[in-house]
Structures are given as C-alpha cells and as structure tokens.
Amino acid sequence: MRHWMQPTQESPLTVPQTLGKLLARDTVQVELIPEKKGLFLKHVEYQITSQHFKISVYRRYSDFDVFHELLLQRFAYRMVPALPPKRMDFIEGRRRALGRFINLVARHPFFSEDELVKTFLTFNGSDVQVKMRDACKKMGDEFMTNTMATLAKDYLPADIQAQFSSSRELIRNIHNSFHKLRDRAEKMAERSKENATDLLMFGRELSTLGSDGSPIPSLASSQSTWGILRQSLKGLSVEFALLADKGAQQGRREEDDVVEKLNLFLDLLQSYRDLCERHEKGVLHEHQRALQKYGMMKRQMMSATVQPKEQVSVEQLESRIVQQENAIQTMELRNYFSLFCLHQETQLIFTYLPITSHILGAFVNSQVQGHQEMGAVWNDLQQKLGCLFGVDEMQSPPLTPK
C-alpha cells in the first residue's frame, strides 16, 4: 500500500514543490515593538518585514486574529496554522509563534500570492482589518475562485479514501515523534542555560572565598599555602564568567536553531490534523445533513401525492426539492474539492519532511560549536591553574578510596 500520494506529472493534483522552493518563497521577520497608549493600557505592536515584498508594516495581535479568521474562511480546505493565544505568559513566546505562523502562510504555494496575504504583508494604512475583510468579501472562498473546483472529481484517484487514511495515520505517527523530539530539545536547551548559571555562581563563590581577608590563625601550620592559594582564587571568576557566557550562548543556539525549527514543523503538522478534522466534521457532515433533509422532503412529497392537498403547497414542495437537489450537488462538488485539496496538502507535508536534516544539522553544529568554545576556555583555565598552583598540586592522588 502506498503511504503518500503519487499522482502523475500531468495531473493538476500534483504540487511540484521542493523544500528549497518553499523556503525561498519568503522569509518574514516579526519584531516586537512595545508601545504605550494612554495612562494604563499598554499595547504591543509587531514590525512585520517580508523579504519577498521588500516592505515593513506594523500589526497588532488583533490584526493577526482577523487575518487568521479570514484565512480560514477563504481557504477552509487548506492547512491554516493556528494562532498562539492572546494571553501568553511570555510575550517573546508569542512573538516567536506569530513568526512561525506568518512564515508558514507566506511560504504556502496556494496562499503566498493571494490578495488577502498580500494585503496583510504590505498594506500600510490604519484600517488594515477593513481592507482585508473587503478583499475576502470580493473573492469569496477558494471553491468560488479555483478553476479546479468543479473538475476535482475527475482527477481524484479511485482509492483516494484509502490513500488519505494511510497518509493520515503515517503523518499522525510522525507528529507524535516530533513532539517528543521537541520536548527533549527544549530540556537540553534549558539544561544548557542552567549549567551557565551554575558556572557563573561557582566562579562567584570562588571569588568570595578568595576575597576573604581574615588573618590565618597561628595554629595553622607554617607549611600551609592557604594564604597564597586564597589570593589566587579571586582571579578565577573571570574564566568561569566566560564559561557561563559560552553556556548561555549554547542554550540560545539550541532554542533558536533547533527548538524553533522543530516548533515550525510541529505547527504545520498540527494544521494538517486540524484540516483533516475540518474535512470530516465540516464538509462531510454538511453533505450528510443535506441528504437527510432531501430524503425527508421526498417523503413529504410522496405523502402529499398519495393524500392530495392544495396544489400550491405541492408546487412549493417541488420547488424546495429542486433547491435541495442543487444544494446537494454543490455539497458533492465541495466534498470532492476538499479531497482534492487534502491530497495536495498531504504532498506539502512530505515536501516539508526533509526539514529533519536541517534540524539535525543545526543540532550537531550547535553542539560542536558549544563544545569547541567551552573546551578552549577550559584548556585556558587548566593552564592557568597549572601556573598558579603547580602541576603536582593538580595531579594529586584521589582524596577518597575508590
């Protein structure tokens, strides 16, 4: 059984993309700009800079919220990433999440050149929400504007449902594994930062110990070197502060280069899961309800024919049945178009999967760089200790038996 979609090259069902092409579509920077308005209310603005459109605009969270709502209306059959909640413990965490959201949207092959996305990324007026709503109202949803909407059925493979089920299961397993990878990477980054704090405090305690000017009591042996040793400890805090700085940099690299890439892919995988649920609970459910309503009307019609009533009510019922038949036909077309889009979105997930090598490369590079930088400082510290205390002192026999 095939686990993913393999349509023919000529088919409009094919999404001819590579990860490199998707990433090259745009890179959008989201920077935090705190802004105080009024005496008590503090609003946060974000500077959004698109490399593709070569422009910077300013957006509030409410602008993102309206944009997200309109994206779901316009592209109900596509992967629309979720927005982070407005209330988050860390504003920086929300900024990162908004950055992932807008980059996934700007790189999506069916979103990137859409008027709605262009408006959000380029419009500099104060009424951006009105502008976006007007753009969305004029276009309608994708079913109304996509030339493939009424032809989708002709291009779907006969085993589309089986392909969809197997792909969905595989992607669900991938999603679970990436969740675990992200959790581990977060813990490693946190440990790097905790290690940096411990190294800094270790150096400070050595400095405190070395700065103690208390006289050495006479009962101490005249052979004691504590006085000289104590003086030497003060200078060691410099190396430990440097080690702490390198450790903190390591933690930031792990967060920025590894955890953030994992979160980006997880956001995409979650949007695929949400899309599958929309397909099942939305289009399929509405189609089923329309068929039930149609069946009920047909029964009423038969009853009216068997037991003749006023001619007007029978004609009204016939008219309503025709309307319902048209509605069902539209529902069926939407259902096929939804499957058509699901097929394409599944391809995009597999197109994104090579990001795994980017993540692994970033992880290994961050470890190599961190160990090299910290190793150099440890080596310098080892040489310094040799000069201060002598090599013999540093290579003493174990203080406790093994």
TrEMBL record:
Coiled coil: none annotated. Keywords: Membrane, Protein transport, Transport. One of its GO terms (molecular function) is phosphatidylinositol binding. It comes from the Eukaryota. Pfam families: PX (PF00787), Snx8_BAR_dom (PF19566). Residues 24-128 form the PX domain. GO terms for biological process: early endosome to Golgi transport; intracellular protein transport. InterPro entries: AH/BAR_dom_sf, PX_dom, PX_dom_sf, SNX8/Mvp1, SNX8/Mvp1_PX, Snx8_BAR_dom. The keyword Cytoplasm does not apply. Its main location: membrane. Belongs to the sorting nexin family. This is Sorting nexin 8a. The gene is SNX8.
